[in-house]
What we know:
Elements (H helix, E strand, L loop, with lengths): L1 H28 L5 E2 L1 H4 L10 E7 L4 H17 L4 E7 L6 H12 L4 E5 L4 H8 L9 E5 L4 E4 L5 H9 L4
Parallel strand pairs: 1-4, 2-3, 3-4
Antiparallel strand pairs: 2-5, 5-6
Helix pairs in contact: 3-6
Amino acid sequence: MYRVCFLLLFILTSISCKISNEEKIAKEALIEISTLNYQQLKPLLHKNDDKVYVINFWATWCVPCVKELPAFEKLYDNYNDKNVEVILVSLDFSKQIESNLIPFIKEKKLKSKIVHFEDKNEQFWIKDIAEDWSGSIPATLIYNAKKRKFYEKSFDYEELQVELQTFFK
């Protein structure tokens, strides 16, 4: 009788643990992406605190953007605890968030903050972000309370780190 009770208890505990682990894995795999218009994005581009912000405009369909993403992730890993915030602003099409963007984020295991940006008034927001921006991507804005610089180019990690260091002087 004790053996039967023990066996049942063991089986129930095993099933419960397996379900709990599966729920945990499912929650970890859940990625929610906020879609922002320009009025919602603009505050992220103009914070006035003690951090350095690295804002990268990119898309999953942009080959040079995808190629440079590891540099931004490495920057996130190396500077996250040094008052640097990396924000990846996806310009992917809204209808492809579920089919392309979220699977891409999972596959690449991106850890930086990611927002999806969509605003039809490109003629306004492109020039508002950077007067000389043509609108092409990849593009990166690095700023802090004292300095602001916009780059319409691809980065490797070393170049990105050199530019970031100029914001600590």
